Amino acid sequence: MDHKKFATVINCIDGRVQLPAAEWIKRGFRVDYVDVVTEAGPIKILAEQRDIKVIASIKRRVEISISQHLSRIVAVVGHFDCAGNSVGKDTQLKQLEAAVRAVEKWGLNVKVIGLWVDEDEKVTRSA
């Protein structure tokens, strides 16, 4: 395997937010590649901790990124107009904070951050 650096993003399936989040991570953390784990409305799923099978699937895929690509940063992403989580921004930002805490509890020994993507594709760090 080459010596390129990886990060991991837990992101929505929404194609509008894939590139902005990946590009932000690449610039902000100086990584070459971004592994993407997608679900519809992942911050809701991770914050509510109800759908154990989906959470286990997300965790398994993140663990592969960390163990096989040596990813050392995991970003959880929320975004505007989410079809899988149709609540307002304020609620989503609270979910995003809870989702970050949930991923931190997995004990993966990596940095976990939250990102928000707005309707203009502007990415901000929110947690």
Description:
By secondary structure, the chain is an alpha/beta fold. The chain has one domain (6-125): Carbonic anhydrase (Beta-carbonic Anhydrase, Chain A), CATH 3.40.1050. Helix content is 42%, strand content 24%. It contains 4 helices and 5 strands. The protein has helices at 18-29, 42-48, 52-69, 89-104; strands spanning 6-12, 33-39, 73-79, 111-117, 123-125. A 5-stranded mixed sheet has the order 2-1-3-4-5, with helices on both faces. Helix 2 crosses helix 4 (89-104).
- What count of domains describes the coordinates? 1
Output the CATH class name.
Answer: Alpha Beta
Given the helix and strand composition, which structural class is it? Answer: alpha/beta
Task: Write the H/E string, N to C.
Answer: EHEHHEHEE
Strand order of the largest sheet: 2-1-3-4-5
The CATH homologous superfamily is called Carbonic anhydrase
Largest sheet: 5 strands, mixed
State the total count of DSSP E strands.
5
- Mean pLDDT across all amino acids: 96
Brief description of this entry?
This protein is α/β, with parallel strands linked by helices.
Key features?
127 residues; alpha/beta; Beta-carbonic Anhydrase, Chain A; 5-stranded mixed β-sheet; 4 helices
Topology:
Layout: E1 6-12, H1 18-29, E2 33-39, H2 42-48, H3 52-69, E3 73-79, H4 89-104, E4 111-117, E5 123-125
Parallel strand pairs: 1-2, 1-3, 3-4
Antiparallel strand pairs: 4-5
Helix pairs in contact: 2-4
